[in-house]
Write a structure and sequence with these properties.
Elements: H1 11-51, H2 57-69, H3 71-89, H4 96-109
Helix pairs in contact: 1-3, 2-3
């Protein structure tokens, strides 16, 4: 700590102490934001798994309860369900010619190993 003059802090000490506190609070805010962002992404992945029936019974119950209590999660869940329905309507199969072109390209661009 810096030297005190007559038992009092110098003005510079107070400034640096406040600056240190402000930067500490900013760091804390950034950390909280990152945690909340990660939690939102994690929840969206869980909701995607729920839409495709890849969750356990316990996860399904928890997520369905969240959709009933948190409007933003309910909105995300509905959007994911609509997306799955839209993707499921049309099924496309590539023609035999397209498959042969892909296989031909794959064979011609595959690395050759020396034995």
């Amino acid at each position: 700590m810096r030297a005190r003059i007559n038992g009092l802090c110098r003005p510079g000490d107070l400034f640096f102490s406040l600056l240190y506190t402000i930067f500490g609070l900013l760091g804390l805010l950034v950390s909280v934001y990152k945690i909340l962002s990660m939690k939102q992404e994690f929840t969206q992945l869980q909701l995607t798994r729920l839409v495709y029936g890849e969750t356990t019974r316990a996860e399904s119950d928890m997520l369905l309860e969240l959709t009933q209590t948190v409007p933003q999660i309910a909105k995300t869940f509905e959007t994911l369900k609509k997306g799955k329905e839209a993707l499921g309507r049309d099924r496309f199969s590539p023609s035999e010619m397209v498959i042969n072109r892909i296989l031909g390209y794959s064979a011609s661009s595959a690395p050759v190993s020396a034995s």
